[in-house]
Specification:
It is built from 11 helices and 10 strands. The protein has helices spanning 54-63, 66-69, 82-95, 98-114, 120-130, 245-281, 293-323, 326-350, 361-367, 378-387, 389-396; strands at residues 136-139, 155-159, 162-172, 180-186, 196-202, 208-212, 224-233, 238-239, 283-284, 287-288. The strands form 3 sheets. A 4-stranded mixed beta sheet has the order 1-4-5-8. Strands 2-3-7-6 form a 4-stranded antiparallel beta sheet, with no helix packed on it. The longest helix has 37 residues, at 245-281.
Length: 398
Amino acid sequence: MSERTPDTPAGDVAEGPPRDAPTGPLLTLARPLAPPGPAPRAAHAPGLPADADGRSLWAALGAAGRLRAAYTGADPAAGVDVPALRTLMVEADAVSGIGSTLALCVQIATAVPLLTLGGEQAAHVLDEALAGRAVVALAATDEGSGSDLTGLGTTVAIEADGLAVSGVKRWITNATHADHFLVLARHREGGHFTNFTWVLVPATAPGVHVEPADSQLFDGSGTGHLRLDGVRLERTHLVGRVGRGMTSFAAHIAVERLTGTLWAVALCHRQLKHTQQHLQGRKFGDGTLWGLESVRQRFADCLVRVHQLDALTDRLAERVARRHDTAAASLLKAAAAQTVGHVLGACAQLQGAEGFTTGGAQWTRAQAALWGVGGGATEVVLSAVAGSADSLLAELAP
């Protein structure tokens, strides 16, 4: 997600802040206001090309060694390095669109670490992915099953002479960019968590069909739909132990939720900063919109929420990164979805008509719905939070 905006008319800027405007570091402008329109993206960040699609962004980061640096000891099997990951997501949000940053998020948090589970093909693709030379799409969500992964219909027949994979995956990030698909498939009937296995499917294998998703949102993400028609592969394409697919997915989706929350804080900060610039430069009566108490209170409410999310992330990040704590990850996911939806909705409203410019605040707000759907719908995540109520309540005990 990353459409930027200072959209304040340069001619509307007062000579200094409104007479009642706070001047603390959180609210003081750092640079002159720019003309209306989408917020400009940063001109550059170390190793990150501006306005690149997800595949180009991934390639640049790999070539610069930034992908390996996001993991402890440069080893995805050791887990993410939270400070390095935070820096990477902030920089990606500063220069890339929401779709391109999404493409980065899913790979670095989930797809690449899952390749460390083992397998001859997985080991080779892991090295290629970390170098930025290969894109791996995580293909978990099935047609019709959505967040209910135990209901997925994609199957893998594990035979003596190889594998046969069939099924349909929908709304897969990186689908049209992918060199390989990391497919979660059912190897036997039933909803038990031991009935699912990972298979690494080359995008060029006979029987693999990809089509772009019918959406103008998430440009640069390569989001699409995948159909697997009896794809035949050698057994070396199995990833990890047979029957460990769902367990490993639950562990690594926790890190994806952490990564998404780090990104959420960066996105909200950027949008609030631009909205403040807009309000301070927009004339209203003898002052500006920033001088209206109702406007300032709504802005302050958003600022409080983002600081709360940032503090929660600081408290839980290492638990998720080191222990794959699913309860902590669910808390972060639910809090991020609620915060992003509220803050970006408020920013879009406060920017008024300017928010409807191409790539403006209303466009960003629409894409921000991602936090409430991708990686587990908010309702499903809140159910997981409720399921951990006893332990989470115990943490609050004096």
